[in-house]
Amino acid sequence: MYKWCWVIEMLIKTKRLVIRDFDMNMAKSVHMNSLDDDNRRFVPDEVFETEEDARETLEFLISRYEEMKSPLVYAVTLNEGVQIGHVQASKLKDGWEIGYHIGKAYTGNGYAKEAVKAFLPVIMDMLSVNEVQGICLADNIASIKVLLGCGFEKTFEGIGRYGGKDQEIFKAVYAKR
Q1: What does the alpha-carbon distance between residue 75 and residue 55 come to, in Å, rounded to a whole number?
Q2: CA gap 34, 50 in Å, rounded
């Protein structure tokens, strides 16, 4: 007996970036990009202290692609192939959330905004959804700028659950136009 499934490989190209499936050769760059202070502060569960930690996480993330199971996390690379961060869609109780991170060595160049803008329509079509939420800590000014710059509209700012505890958060929603 055969089980049929559609295997979709992520491949989005922008002027400067490529968004694609992770591969195991990216473990070192995933590890290194995760170590910056902002990542430790805003998303400590995405810090990989060793390359082996990153490798284990990549194995898990890559295993999610075939069945399109959350979280769906994809590499963001420069056109020349250097992995600089990621974009992702994660299932929430009431929809989907976008996530993203660009390593500190590459921030300040508009890469996060470029990646999110390119990723949104593709992942929304893949998931057959009409809106995606963006949630971050209220003092994560850079992430708020990315969300608003990509057309998200603020829906809430105040105390909410984030990272397993009550914190000041910012929520926004992006709806297909």
Answers
A1: 14
A2: 10
Both structure tokens of 104: 């500190």
Q: Which amino acid is at 114?
A: E
Distance CA 136, CA 152 (A): 13
Per residue in 112-139, pLDDT tens? 999 999 999 999 999 999 999 999 999 9
Instruction: Determine how β-strand 72-78 pairs with β-strand 83-92.
Output: antiparallel
pLDDT of residue 3 exceeding 60: no
The CA distance from 132 to 105, in Å, is 28
Strand ordering across the sheet containing 17-20 = 11-13, 17-20, 72-78, 83-92, 95-102, 131-137, 165-175, 153-162
Q: What is the pLDDT of residues 92-117, one digit of tens each?
A: 999 999 999 999 999 999 999 999 99
Give SS3 for 170.
strand
- What is the Cα–Cα distance from 67 to 31, expressed in whole angstroms? 25
C-alpha distances in angstroms, 76 versus 36, 92, 112, 131? 17, 23, 9, 22
The residue to which tokens 């491949």 are assigned: 11
Alpha carbon distance 8, 119 (integer Å): 14
Considering the entire predicted model, what is its pTM?
Answer: 0.91
Reduce the DSSP state of residue 37 to 3 states and report it.
helix
| Of 101, 61, 102, 93, residue with least CA distance to 161 | 93
